[in-house]
């Protein structure tokens, strides 16, 4: 079961966040609004190219040079961070915001032993002695369920993929960040190892009380593990709600299709429905999903839209729901 939100303190807020390419002004992220509370696991899901990693990079202050935040704000613990210098952003990374990447190799330096890397990471912000840092490193390696002493004295190339991802996770979590961003942390791993990594993130999240922004292609992962979910399409946030609400009452036609295309035990012998059209086909005008949407109506190709509230904590950006002001779910719409 998903963890419950400990307190409604806001850890991260994106207000109308927009990102564009500097050279041709092409907009890649469109007015994204999102709030993550303390102790919450928030799932961000969408097809490849929908803007998930750009969102994470903007929060980390790691946007590629060709891109810029063109509008909106990022608040971390109620402080604006979208205009920080590279140096100021670096101070946030580590004990304030930690990130686990899809490519765990990028988090580790190949020819330096794991223990040495961990000690260096720990000592810089914390002013610890070598002995204290080593104790913490060994402890955290045990917590991610690795043979701590052996891994501590190993080089990264002596470890398996799953072990390296655990080390990367340990290195981030030993700094006890307030926010952990996990961008596709399991993509490079087999299903069982990947599932263990997610379980581990949840366990450690509860232990240190951090919030998690969990990014994935797989709706099934966020339905299972996240408290709340946002669905992205073509750089737009198209639906947001509690995981159980989205799982039971998906409103946006794209979310509905994502849900229908999820494999399940009951449907394992059936041919799963495919989402029509090509991923990355984003309509330039009107609704971004209009070129692929089975429910498209005339208004969709002409008029842009904003998120509107369907019920408490459930918002959707779709013309089908524009006239719906309800506290329930209207069958007539679906
Ligand atoms: N450095 C860059 N220069 C230009 N466009 C970029 C750059 N980085 C990303 N983009 C574009 O921004 C859009 C969003 O990319 P992003 O990496 O956020 O997608 P994603 O949702 O993380 O996809 P995936 O699931 O494949 O990781 C894509 O259209 C991508 O081509
Ligand atoms: S606005 Fe129109 S095209 Fe877009 S998701 Fe809704 S019905 Fe489909
Ligand atoms: Mg990505």
What's the short version?
This protein is of the alpha/beta class and 334 residues long. It contains 11 helices and 12 strands.
SSE map:
Elements: E1 10-21, E2 27-37, E3 41-46, H1 52-60, E4 67-76, E5 79-80, H2 86-92, E6 97-100, H3 114-126, H4 130-143, H5 148-152, H6 161-173, E7 179-183, H7 191-208, E8 211-216, H8 219-225, E9 228-233, E10 236-242, H9 243-248, H10 253-260, H11 298-302, E11 308-311, E12 314-316
Parallel strand pairs: 3-8, 3-9, 6-7, 7-8
Antiparallel strand pairs: 1-2, 1-4, 4-5, 9-10, 10-12, 11-12
The protein binds adenosine-5'-triphosphate, iron/sulfur cluster (SF4) and magnesium ion.
Structure write-up:
The protein is an alpha/beta fold. It has a single domain, classed as P-loop containing nucleotide triphosphate hydrolases (Rossmann fold). The chain has helices at 52-60, 86-92, 114-126, 130-143, 148-152, 161-173, 191-208, 219-225, 243-248, 253-260, 298-302; strands at residues 10-21, 27-37, 41-46, 67-76, 79-80, 97-100, 179-183, 211-216, 228-233, 236-242, 308-311, 314-316. It has an eight-stranded mixed beta sheet with strand order 6-7-8-3-9-10-12-11, sandwiched between helices. A hairpin with a 2-residue loop joins strand 4 (67-76) and strand 5. The longest helix is centred in the middle third of the chain and has 18 residues, at 191-208. The two termini are 28 Å apart. The model is unreliable at 1-6 and 326-334 (pLDDT under 50). The structure holds adenosine-5'-triphosphate (ATP), iron/sulfur cluster and magnesium ion. Adenosine-5'-triphosphate binds at residues 21, 28, 46, 48-54, 64, 66-67, 217. Iron/sulfur cluster (SF4) is lined by residues 252-253, 287, 289-290, 293, 295-297, 300, 318-320.
């Amino acid at each position: 079961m998903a963890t419950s939100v400990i307190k409604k303190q806001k850890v991260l807020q994106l207000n109308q966040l927009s990102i564009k390419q500097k050279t041709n002004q092409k907009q890649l992220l469109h007015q994204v609004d999102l709030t993550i509370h303390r102790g919450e696991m928030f799932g961000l899901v969408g097809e490849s190219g929908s803007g998930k990693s750009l969102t994470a990079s903007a929060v980390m202050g790691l946007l590629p040079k060709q891109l810029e935040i063109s509008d909106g704000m990022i608040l971390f613990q109620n402080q604006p961070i979208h205009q920080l210098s590279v140096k100021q952003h670096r101070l946030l990374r580590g004990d304030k915001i930690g990130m686990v990447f899809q490519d765990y190799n990028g988090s580790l330096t190949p020819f330096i032993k794991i223990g040495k890397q961990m000690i260096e990471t720990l000592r810089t912000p914390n002013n610890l002695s070598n002995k204290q840092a080593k104790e913490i490193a060994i402890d955290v390696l045990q917590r991610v369920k690795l043979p701590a002493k052996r891994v501590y004295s190993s080089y990264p190339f002596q470890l398996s993929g799953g072990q390296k991802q655990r080390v990367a996770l340990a290195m981030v979590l030993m700094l006890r960040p307030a926010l952990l961003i996990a961008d596709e942390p399991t993509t490079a791993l087999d299903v069982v190892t990947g599932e263990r990594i997610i379980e581990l993130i949840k366990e450690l999240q509860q232990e240190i009380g951090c919030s998690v922004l969990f990014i994935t292609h797989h709706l099934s992962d966020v339905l299972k593990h996240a408290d709340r979910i946002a669905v992205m399409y073509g750089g737009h946030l198209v639906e947001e709600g509690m995981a159980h609400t989205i799982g039971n009452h998906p409103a946006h036609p794209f979310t509905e299709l994502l849900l229908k295309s999820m494999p399940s035990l009951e449907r394992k012998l059936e041919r799963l429905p495919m989402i029509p059209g090509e991923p990355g086909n984003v309509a330039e005008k009107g609704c971004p999903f209009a070129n692929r949407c089975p429910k498209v109506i005339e208004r969709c190709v002409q008029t842009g839209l904003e998120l509107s509230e369907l019920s408490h904590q459930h918002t959707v950006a779709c013309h089908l729901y524009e006239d719906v002001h309800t506290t329930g779910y209207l069958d007539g719409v679906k």
